[in-house]
Amino acid sequence: MSIRHVCFAAAVAIALQSGVGSAETIKAASDVGLPPFSMSGDDGKFQGMDIDIATALSKQLGDTIQVIDQPWSTTYPGLNAGKFDIVLSPATVSAERAKAMLFVEPYGDAIYGFLTSKAGPKIAKVEDLKGKTIAVNKGNLFDRWLTQRQAEYGWTINRFDKTSDAAAAVASGQADAAMMYVAAAGWLAKQNSALTPSEFVINTGEVYAYAVRLGDKALRDRLDRAMECLKKDGTLADIYTKWTGLKPLSKGVVMTITPGYGVEGFDNYDPTAHDLNCK
Description:
12 strands, 279 residues, alpha/beta, 9 helices, 29% helix, D-Maltodextrin-Binding Protein, domain 2
């Protein structure tokens, strides 16, 4: 599948010139259509949590992060093929993924939820979803979670290339619920008064993070330190609240700098202590 290069004039960060050589361009693939993380505004420009973070990371790095739109199901094949340098979308860290890529300092707590219709039945527990039709972004963690439990609960899974399309399926009555991060469900409900986040959420303690290719440790470490700077000065917390309307968990990863490089407890984590040189 070809990559759609999109003009990113308003959202791409302006690289800071250090006076020594020219700034690099780092190509980042984002699943545009995954609100509030990354989406197209009315003017056609990219906006969202990940876009604001890309701008802030660019400032810390002194390089330009160029964002392109890439459907989630093709992000990792494209990363491994060298079509871009970063997956700039929230990937929940798992043992399987940690073997196949290098994760950056985590930037969010992966709390799962469901988007439903206000006029439909309430979802207060997983059993309330038995026999229902659930929409999901094709190939992501939620798709796998639903697939693993499909035989037990008898739900039908409708798969879409974009989370926004999954939400539209709920709004149109094609699906009873859409599974996604709580942050995404909250934002979408704010945009459409006919929709609401479910009472039922799943907090497993998992986190999500950006990822780079195996072997690209230098870039991972640079991004890791830059993300720690965004935590240190409160920029990351401000961006989270701006797009979700929620306060980050007081002891969650949005507010906490984790030691070393990567995600502790997983493959390819590097415990090396390091100082920060934040801008």
